[in-house]
Amino acid sequence: xxxxxxxxxxxxxxxxxxxxxxxxxxxxxxxxxxxxxxxxxxxxxxxxxxxxxxxxxxxxxxxxxxxxxxxxxxxxxxxxxxxxxxxxxxxxxxxxxxxxxxxxxxxxxxxxxxxxxxxxxxxxxxxxxxxxxxxxxxxxxxxxxxxxxxxxxxxxxxxxxxxxxxxxxxxxxxxxxxxxxxxxxxxxxxxxx
Length: 193
Fold this sequence. Notes:
- By secondary structure, the protein is α+β, with helices and mostly antiparallel strands.
- The protein has one domain (7-109, 152-191): Pnp Oxidase, Chain A (Roll), CATH 2.30.110.
- 29% of the residues lie in helices and 38% in strands.
- It has 5 helices and 9 strands, in the order αββββαββαααβββ.
- It has helices at residues 7-21, 65-72, 100-109, 112-120, 130-143; strands at 29-35, 41-47, 50-52, 55-61, 75-82, 87-97, 153-167, 175-182, 185-191.
- The longest helix has 15 residues, at 7-21.
- The two termini are 17 Å apart.
């Protein structure tokens, strides 16, 4: 099956079309799925930072649950659902840590509150009294400091091996196209709805 777009070009086209119509405050939200340390799948929403060299970039504390799961098994999935254009994109790929310079760039782009939370909080860890953390965050934000990137903060570059594009139709006869990386080239297959 022939198509004039690479999957990355098609992703960018679809993303641009959704972004123009979307009323969402976070149109870059994507569901990241990992294989849990207990063997169960684990999913959560993260923010897509950008696409670099045809790979999808996300950031996170590296010692968070998702960081530990990716370290254990770097096969991950991303799922986008775009309401305005009624489109879904599913990506399977291999996650590798981004370099420190790129992590630093993304950290500096975060607002002060997000930087402070990244510095003070241990994402996903249990706590007895959340008010203690709230006070620390408020206290630090009042001093308006320049926050250094925490040592545990970084991100991942997800190199896709499969990308499925689906356009929903009221008839339920959805248009589904699957790109797969085979021998360093993208192949394209039309899938049944």
